[in-house]
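Q: I'm a student working through a structural biology exercise. My instructor gave each of us a protein and asked us to get a predicted structure, then write a short paragraph describing it. Mine is Extracellular solute-binding protein. I'm not confident about reading structure output yet, so if you can add a plain explanation after the tokens, that would really help. Here is the sequence I was given:
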Amino acid sequence: MNWKKGMSITLSGILLSTAVAGCSTKTETGAAGGGDAAAQAVNAPPPKLKVAVVNNEGYVVASANINEDKYVQKMRELSKTDVKFELINSNEKEKQITLMFAGGDLPDLIQAVGINSAELAPAVDAGALTDLKPLLEKYGPNIMKNTPKEAWTGPEVYKDGKIYGIPLLNFNDQGRITLLRKDWLDKLGLQVPKTVDEFIEVLKAFRDKDPNGNGKKDEIPYTGREALLYAETFMNAYDVTPNTFKFENGQMVPGFIRPQMKQALELYKMMYQEKLLDNDVFLNKTKDTDTKIKGSGLVGMFVTGADGIDKLAADLKKNVPGAEIIPVAAPLGPDGKGGSFKRSIISATTWVIPSTNKNPENAIKFLDWFYTPEAQKLVLYGLEGVDHTVENGKISYKVPSTNEETTRESMHLNWMRFLGPSHVLNKEFMQLRPFGDLVMQAMEIATKEGRKNDAEGMPYLPAMQKNPDLYYKGLFIEFAAKVMTGKEPVENFDKFVEDFKKRGGDELIKEGTEWYNKNTK
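A: Happy to help. First, here is the predicted structure for Extracellular solute-binding protein. I'll explain a few features afterward.
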């Protein structure tokens, strides 16, 4: 195996990934991550643990038997836990978790979203989840030391004085970042835009001045996915991000019915009809935007997660050798602000323990282990002899250069990070990584921008459960598509808002207001 393109780092550097969690660099060690090792019999077999976990990584999906995988075997060995995984389909996790609780044959530990989600809220009310507070205090010292106090009171994990979930923490409070093709800007002699108007002028230049130099008018100035996912950048500039709420005039109002949305839709209609915005935006799936952005390199502006920019840049460079991207601040709106909505410190992953688990302490000890140095080394650098070598106390890490290696790396960097800090917070790791500087630039930008979402942590409200069209992907996207394609005038916006309220929107606003008054006062 060729290690020449790898990177070296001292073993002591691994501790940085724990330090940057922001709470404590100290970890408690011991069998299964933090219990009293003396209390365990020397020759006792490792505790068995059945864990339901989402198969949201290509490596896991492609595995013939994830429980026989070499990474899982090493995890089993180091954590001193006989863990066996039961995979949850990432596209059907709500349904599968709901059926799991309905059937009664539950695993010992479940990877889910917050306890305020549609699938877990009924389980909490039915007493089907374990109160974790006393268990964490006794068996989870590393979890407690590395999790900010405010995370334990979020509605994703806490209800009625009890802690039912253990959160995986986000690496920052604003995960999306705007990217531009730097090589296109340079070729056209353009400066990085700041305001909405300046961005529009750049997009027009991308459309008209052949920045890819192939003599064809095939550039796509700006793209996104169905339901305007990752295409809401200019709506954010008007503070009307569709999937957010704003508490104003004593009410919780969906972002997409605020008056400023009318102005935003006028802009989006112009962008769509003048082909500044991808005209397949309502049809694009992830694979489609990936092909346009990374495969053919036809896109000039797009939005993505800050933590994946290094891989995106590498893929783009491989397919379009001269291509360069640059993270930039999102378009500034009339109030001088912009950026996607701020998110909770708690990520979309929360661990819960069913009340049927007779030895819940084993699940706590297993998760607590992920904050230890040996766990961090495994998650960050993978397997010795496969992903890295060690010589004279230094790790030589093989940076992926093929699709297969990238997929394998995602297994240990992402899927196996059940708890603990993200690799993007380890500056030593990122500085030595190709295009890692772009990630750090993006992180710095992201911390300085973003809109407040007053509904952060709000559950899926009953009105929305009864009528899913009240969610922004329903009635609003239908109306927005008609306006942008010219099938309905933007002047009908007030009529749309009135109709939305009559079809259940008033009930949604009432429920949201009640939740806000109860949980934020």
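A: Here are two points you could use in your paragraph. Confidence is low (pLDDT under 50) at residues 1-5, 12-26, 29-34. DSSP finds 21 helices and 16 strands in the chain. It's a good idea to check both against the output above yourself.
Q: Great, thank you!
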